[in-house]
Amino acid sequence: MDTNPEQFEKGARKQGYSRIAGIDEAGRGPLAGPVVAGAVILPQEFCLPHLDDSKRVGAKRREQLFDAIHEQAISIGIGIVDPAEIDRINILQASLSSMRMAVDNLRPAPDYLLVDGTFPIRSPVPQEVIKHGDRRSVSIAAASIIAKVTRDRLMKLYHDEFPQFGFYRNKGYGTEEHRLAIRACGYCRIHRKTFRGVKEYL
């Protein structure tokens, strides 16, 4: 992670907040599958070696961190928005919606939010939006691991239903293998029909 990865959490605590949640999502870019958000409240004292943005951590390490976060976190929330809703409201709004769901699923509820990205989420809870937050905040990095592993596991389940698309390997992203499969087989119910690479075959 970047230097001083607890700077935002410490800043929030200095303002008097104690249940500080990091929020991030996974799955904005794929041609298939849901967008999944994670929200995590970490205790002030925790031990998560090698924690980083999920995109900079290998699959095996992500699984290890996923288990460690579940063991140590005060609260974890998940939000999932399916492909039909992504097509209906667009991927940005779906991502923000999944983040809001993840926050709503936190027990105990947070009193401050650290949100990855450049857009705030609709919530009465005070929040701070942090660009590249998954590299700069430990709470957001933890949320990114939760979101990524949860989504990858969902895509492996979808692979059992739709093995022709190779979701076990590509997780719904537009790899050459995946695009060739769409061209040969058409789309399935978890494809995002408004995305280029799918909509051409409707």
Features:
Nucleotidyltransferase, domain 5, elongated, 5 strands, 202 residues, alpha/beta
Any overview of this molecule?
There is one protein chain. Helices cover 42% and strands 15% of the residues. 46% of the residues are buried. It is α/β, with parallel strands linked by helices and 202 residues long. The radius of gyration is 17 Å and the shape is elongated. It has helices spanning 7-14, 59-72, 83-89, 91-104, 133-136, 138-161, 167-170, 176-185, and strands spanning 20-26, 35-41, 75-81, 112-116, 127-130. Strand 1 and strand 2 (35-41) form a beta hairpin. Helix 3 (83-89) packs across helix 4 (91-104).
Question: What would CATH call the homologous superfamily?
Answer: Ribonuclease H-like superfamily/Ribonuclease H
Q: Write out the strand line-up for the largest beta sheet, numbering strands in chain order.
A: 3-2-1-4-5
Shape: elongated
Spell the H/E element sequence. Answer: HEEHEHHEEHHHH
What is the name of the CATH class? Alpha Beta
Number of strands: 5
SSE-based structural type? alpha/beta
**CATH-assigned fold name:** Nucleotidyltransferase, domain 5
| Strand content range | 5-15%
- How many helices? The count is 8
- Beginning-to-end CA distance, first to last residue: 42 Å
Q: Provide the CATH architecture.
A: 2-Layer Sandwich
Whole-number mean pLDDT: 97
Cα-atom radius of gyration: 17 Å
The biggest sheet amounts to: 5 strands, mixed
Name the helicity range.
Answer: 40-55%
Low-pLDDT segments:
none
- Overall tally of structural domains: 1
